[in-house]
C-alpha cells in the first residue's frame, strides 16, 4: 500500500499546476453556469411572469369588484390589480396558468370590507333601501388573512417594488395582425411575427427600472432558427453580457444587426454570411424572461427602430 501511494504521488503534477488545473476544471465552468442562468433567475425572482392576457384577468377583476362598492351615496373604493398579481405570483409560484377569473375576483373581494350602510327612503310609496359603505383593506391585512409567512409577504412586496404597469401592454409598436414587408433586409425569424416588446422607452422587465429598448423582441420557441437579415460579415459570435449568446453582423453603409438571447450560434467571427442564412437559434440566455429573439439594427453606431425597415 505504501508503495502504491508513493507511485501515485510520483505521477502527480507540481502543486502550482494542481491548483491551476482545479481552477480550470471546476471554478471556471461554475462561473460560466452562473452567468448563463443569472438573467433568467433574476427575472424569475423579481418580475411576475404573467402574459398580458393573464394580467387582464386581474385588471378586469379589480375593476368589477371596485364597481360593486359604488352607489348613489358613496364613491366606493378602487381595488388595485397590481397586488392581486403579486400575491398570485407567490401563491402560484409564478405558474399563472392557474389564474382564473373567479379566483381573481375572490382575491379582489378580500381587499374590500363593509364598514357601514346608509338607509334611505325612496319611491312613492316610500321604501327604505340600504346602501353599503366600504373601505379598502391594506395589503398586510389581506396577507394575514391568507396566512402568508413573513418570507412570502416580503416576496409580494418585492414584486410590488417595481412598476408592474408594463405587464399590461408590452408595447409591440405594430398593429394586430401585422406582417413584415421585406425589402432591403429580411425578417430574422421567417414566418414568426409575434412581437412582444417594441423599440423605445420601457420599464426594464428584469430590474424594474426606466430604460430604453434598443430593438424589438420576437417570441419563438427555443431552438427556432434565426437568419441573417442581410449580407454581411460576422463581427461577433458568442457570450455578450446581458445579451447572452449573441451574433453581431456588419453590413454595408455602416449598418449592423444584432441577434441576442440565443441558445447557440451557427457562425464564427469574420465569417461571410448571406441574407436568409441561419446564424443561430432562439433561446433565453443573458438578461431574459423567456425564449425570444432580441433583434437590433444599428446605423452609424446608433440604434434605430427595426420595424421601420419592414413597413
From TrEMBL:
Record domain M23ase beta-sheet core: where: 212-306
Statement: the UniProt record of this protein carries the keyword Transmembrane: yes
InterPro entries for the chain: Cell_wall_metabolism_enzyme, Dup_hybrid_motif, M23ase_b-sheet_dom
Membrane as UniProt keyword: yes
GO molecular function list: metalloendopeptidase activity
Keywords: Membrane, Transmembrane, Transmembrane helix
SUPFAM superfamilies in the record: Duplicated hybrid motif
Domain of life, source organism: Bacteria
Membrane-traversing stretches: 21-44
PANTHER family referenced in this protein's UniProt entry, alphabetically: MUREIN HYDROLASE ACTIVATOR ENVC, PEPTIDASE-RELATED
Name of the protein in its database record: Peptidase M23-like protein
Amino acid at each position: 500500500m505504501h508503495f502504491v501511494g508513493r507511485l501515485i504521488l510520483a505521477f502527480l503534477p507540481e502543486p502550482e499546476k494542481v491548483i491551476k488545473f482545479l481552477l480550470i476544471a471546476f471554478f471556471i465552468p461554475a462561473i460560466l453556469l452562473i452567468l448563463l442562468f443569472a438573467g433568467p433567475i433574476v427575472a424569475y425572482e423579481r418580475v411576475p411572469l404573467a402574459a398580458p392576457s393573464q394580467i387582464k384577468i386581474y385588471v378586469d377583476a379589480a375593476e368589477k369588484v371596485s364597481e360593486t362598492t359604488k352607489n348613489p351615496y358613496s364613491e366606493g373604493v378602487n381595488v388595485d390589480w397590481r397586488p392581486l398579481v403579486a400575491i398570485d405570483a407567490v401563491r402560484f409560484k409564478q405558474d399563472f396558468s392557474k389564474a382564473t377569473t373567479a379566483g381573481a375576483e375572490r382575491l379582489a373581494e378580500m381587499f374590500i370590507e363593509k364598514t357601514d350602510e346608509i338607509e334611505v327612503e325612496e319611491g312613492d310609496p316610500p321604501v327604505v333601501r340600504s346602501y353599503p359603505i366600504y373601505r379598502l383593506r391594506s395589503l398586510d391585512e389581506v396577507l394575514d388573512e391568507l396566512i402568508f409567512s413573513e418570507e412570502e409577504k416580503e416576496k409580494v412586496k418585492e414584486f410590488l417594488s417595481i412598476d408592474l404597469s408594463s405587464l399590461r401592454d408590452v408595447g409591440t409598436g405594430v398593429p394586430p395582425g401585422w406582417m413584415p414587408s421585406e425589402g432591403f433586409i429580411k425578417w430574422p425569424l421567417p414566418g414568426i411575427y409575434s412581437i412582444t416588446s417594441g423599440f423605445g422607452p420601457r420599464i426594464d422587465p428584469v430590474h424594474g427600472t426606466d430604460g430604453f429598448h434598443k430593438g424589438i423582441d420576437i417570441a419563438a420557441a427555443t431552438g427556432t432558427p434565426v437568419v441573417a437579415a442581410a449580407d454581411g460579415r460576422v463581427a461577433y459570435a458568442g457570450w455578450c453580457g446581458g445579451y447572452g449568446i449573441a451574433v453581431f453582423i456588419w453590413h454595408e453603409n455602416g449598418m449592423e444587426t444584432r441577434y441576442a438571447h440565443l441558445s447557440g450560434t451557427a457562425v464564427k467571427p469574420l465569417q461571410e454570411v448571406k441574407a436568409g442564412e441561419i446564424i443561430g437559434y432562439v433561446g433565453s440566455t443573458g438578461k431574459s424572461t423567456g425564449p425570444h429573439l432580441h433583434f437590433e439594427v444599428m446605423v452609424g453606431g446608433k440604434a434605430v427602430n427595426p420595424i421601420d425597415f419592414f413597413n
